[in-house]
Amino acid sequence: MQQRIQSVDILRGITIAGMILVNNPGSDSVYAPLEHAEWIGLTPTDLVFPFFMFIMGITTYLSLRKFNFEWSWPCARKVLKRALLLWFIGLAIAWSIGFVRGLISPDHAALSLGERLWVSANTLDHIRILGVLPRLGICYGLASVVGLSVNHRFIPWLIALIFIGYYILLQVANGYAHDASNILAIVDDLILGHNHVYRWESPDPEGILSTLPALGHVLIGFCVGRVVMNLDNLNDKIERLFIYGAVLLMVGFLLSYACPISKKLWTPTFSLVSCGLGSLLLALLTWVIDKRQHRDASLRFVHVFGVNPLALYVLSDLLLIPLSMLPLVGGESFQSVAYGAMEPWLGAKAASLAWAVVYVLINWCFGYYLFKKKIYIKL
Q1: Does residue 239 register a pLDDT over 70?
Q2: For the whole model, what pTM was predicted?
């Protein structure tokens, strides 16, 4: 049991470290593999978030198994608390970053301190309601409801129903348009309001309708967890993970001729391909860690992220404020100063990557302290 959990922790740690790395470059100059696909397509960066959601499906199965997949007040309280906590932490981070941006904005320089504080704090009328953490909270909550309420044999059929319905919606309602005429953008604007969605792109990549296939994505992880984690033989676990991964990957790529792969739309083929790759990677890690008993510094490094994944992801967002936003002497942030010092020596893209690596290491230091103290923060 412990080895199995460690394999999942290692994969979870890889994804969190990857998310922090790709989300925090030193500048806009970034190597192509470290950028998201502009619209249709797939890059390595597009895989880190869906890998985490795939793992979340597996761990949701393991968590609910402790309650025998039956509703109870402790179970319902745990699910509701975690789902709402993830959502509200996401909102709190968005508010905090907006507050600091307001304080340091040149547009507010003529205001008094009290006026700046009031204007900066009063951002609820244009705060983004959805995002990465809210999506995690929503999908975790909905997947838990499905896992507790639906016969597990029928969950693959529910996933198929979600994917087929979403595919039809994209086909008939201008779902592939990269603008405000997309049905996803129309629904977000209608329900959330234009001021509460992602400002730099339309439709919102974590919008309302794309949450449906994201739920199917988590449920794939749930189903993989259900089958694989109930096997006693380690070789059988590895074999099943490899088979499921290969099948999902192959089916996803074959169907991509009719349904393009797109993270920003979270198309069904994107879920199939990314879950397939996630299952294959978990099979490899299970073989390396559990079967071969391999341990080295690289695994120990990502294990620090894996045991406190969401806490360190939240920390990485909060550290943006002192390191990347607040001006130092001279009006530049610590990030700008560090990048400016490295850029003449390394070049724009290499210096941008170097800062991202430094940022990962800064977060790792906090995580290592928690790891050594055996402090595990549950979010």
Answers
A1: yes
A2: 0.93
